[in-house]
Design goal:
This protein is mainly alpha-helical. It is 45% helix and 5% strand.
Length: 409
C-alpha cells in the first residue's frame, strides 16, 4: 500500500466548521449507535465532511471530527489514512479514478491513461483551472463494460480514446454528459448482434407483480383440488356409513336397520340393555352438518373482525389495549373466595403460566370461567395471545363440568 500523508501546510486551510446541514445530519447518525459508542460514526462523518470540503479532507476537518466524536486525534487520523476513499490532498472539481486492473487493461485502459496524462498530467495533479485531477485505482467492479472510470460519484464505461476526450471536453464546458456506457448500449448487453429482449412491459411497470399473481393462482388451484378430493372422500365415507346402518345382518332381516321413528327414551333403553351409547361423531345428519358449517362460518367472521380491529392499533399497543379493542374484560375477584382458589390447571390448556395470568385478572374459580360469553372469551384469548384456543379446547365447557363437581369429558 502506498504511503498516505496529509497535504502540505501550504494548502491546508486555517480553520474548519461543520455546516448546519452536516450538524443536523450528524445528530441523526449518532442516534444509530448505543450511548457511548458515537465513535462508530467516524467513517460516515469523515465521508460527509470530505464532500463539504470539495472532496478532500484537510487536517482541521479531521481534528474537528475527532473532537465532535470525543476520539483521540490519532485514531481518526489512522482511519483517514488507511482508507483510500478519503483524499488527503485537494482534488479537481472532476475527480477521476481510472481502473487499471487486468480486465480494463485488456480492453484498452492504456489509451484512457494516455488521455489523462496528456490532458491533466501526473496522477494527483490538479489542473490550473481546478477542474480535473486523476488517480489510478484497483477494480471498480464494472469489468463487463471495460475500460471505465469513476468521476466523482458516477461511472463512465465503454471508453475509447475518442469518446473519453469528448467526455472531458463536455465536462470542462459544463455541458450535460451521459453516465454509464459511452457507446449507447443498455446495461451490459453485447456490443454487437444484440438479442436482448426488448419487451416494453419489462420497463413500463405493467409486468410488476405478475410473477406473484401466477403463484397465487397456482396456490388457489391446488387448494381447490385438495378441497374437491376431501369432499369426495367425505361423501364416500358418508355413503358407506349409511349403507352399513341399513344393511340387514344374515339371519336377522331387520337387525341393524335404522328405526324410522325412534322413541324419546331410546338412549335409556339402550343403556338398560347394556349397550354402549352411540358415538355422536360417527353419523352426522344433514341438519347437524349445516349447523357445523354455520358455526365454522361464524368463527371465521369473528376472526376476521378481531384481526381488522387489531390492525388499527399501534404496533406498541399493550396486551390489555388489544384485548379491550376486541372484547370485554371478565369480572374478577380481589381474592379467591374463602381464601382457597380452584386448581385452574385441571382445565386442559391451562398450565401454571396461564393460571398465574388468570389469577392476575382476578379469575380464581371454575364458575367464573363457566360464565364467560363471547365478549369475555375474545378478551381473554387476545390478552393471552391465544386467539381461538379457548374455543378449541372448550375451556368454558370444562369449567362448567368442574364447577358441578364432574370430570371434563
Amino acid at each position: 500500500m502506498a504511503v498516505r500523508r496529509l497535504a502540505p501546510d501550504a494548502v491546508q486551510p486555517k480553520s474548519f466548521a461543520f455546516t448546519p446541514q452536516t450538524e443536523a445530519w450528524l445528530v441523526e447518525q449518532v442516534r444509530k449507535y448505543p450511548v457511548g459508542r458515537q465513535a462508530s460514526a467516524v467513517i460516515p462523518l469523515l465521508w460527509r465532511v470530505q464532500k463539504d470540503c470539495g472532496n478532500w479532507l484537510p487536517q482541521k476537518a479531521i481534528e474537528a471530527v475527532a473532537e465532535r466524536l470525543a476520539m483521540p486525534y490519532i485514531r481518526v487520523f489512522e482511519v483517514a489514512t488507511f482508507y483510500t476513499m478519503f483524499n488527503l490532498e485537494p482534488v479537481g472539481k472532476f475527480y477521476i479514478q481510472m481502473c487499471g486492473t487486468t480486465p480494463c487493461q485488456l480492453r484498452g485502459s492504456d489509451a484512457v491513461k494516455k488521455v489523462l496524462e496528456r490532458r491533466i498530467g501526473a496522477p494527483q495533479h490538479v489542473t490550473d483551472d481546478g477542474l480535473f485531477s486523476w488517480l489510478e485505482v484497483e477494480c471498480l467492479g464494472a469489468c463487463c463494460n471495460a475500460p471505465m472510470v469513476q468521476i466523482n460519484d458516477d461511472y463512465y464505461e465503454d471508453l475509447t480514446e475518442e469518446n473519453f476526450d469528448k467526455l472531458l471536453d463536455d465536462l470542462a464546458a459544463g455541458r450535460e454528459v451521459r453516465t454509464g456506457s459511452q457507446q449507447g448500449r443498455t446495461s451490459s448487453e453485447p456490443t454487437d448482434n444484440v438479442q436482448t429482449l426488448q419487451d416494453p412491459g419489462l420497463y413500463d411497470g405493467s409486468r410488476v407483480g405478475a410473477w406473484k399473481k401466477r403463484f397465487e393462482e397456482e396456490a388457489i388451484r391446488k387448494a381447490a383440488e385438495e378441497k374437491a378430493k376431501e369432499d369426495e372422500a367425505k361423501a364416500e365415507a358418508a355413503s358407506a356409513a349409511k349403507e352399513a346402518a341399513v344393511e340387514p345382518k344374515p339371519g336377522k332381516p331387520d337387525s341393524g336397520r335404522a328405526t324410522e321413528s325412534p322413541v324419546a327414551d331410546a338412549p335409556a333403553q339402550r343403556a338398560a340393555a347394556g349397550e354402549r351409547p352411540v358415538d355422536p361423531g360417527a353419523r352426522v345428519t344433514a341438519s347437524e352438518e349445516g349447523s357445523r358449517k354455520t358455526v365454522d362460518a361464524q368463527a371465521v367472521a369473528e376472526e376476521e373482525e378481531v384481526a381488522s380491529r387489531l390492525a388499527t392499533l399501534p404496533k406498541d399497543a399493550s396486551a390489555e389495549d388489544k384485548a379491550n379493542a376486541v372484547g370485554e374484560r371478565p369480572a374478577g375477584l380481589d381474592a379467591p373466595r374463602g381464601g382457597t382458589a380452584d386448581d385452574l390447571k385441571k382445565i386442559l390448556g391451562i398450565g401454571p403460566a396461564n393460571e398465574k395470568k388468570l389469577n392476575g385478572l382476578g379469575i380464581w374459580h371454575f364458575d367464573q370461567i363457566a360464565a364467560w360469553e363471547r365478549p369475555q372469551i375474545r378478551w381473554v384469548g387476545t390478552y393471552l395471545a391465544f386467539p381461538g384456543r379457548i374455543d378449541r379446547e372448550n375451556w368454558v365447557e370444562q369449567a362448567r363440568a368442574l364447577a358441578d363437581g364432574n370430570t371434563p369429558s
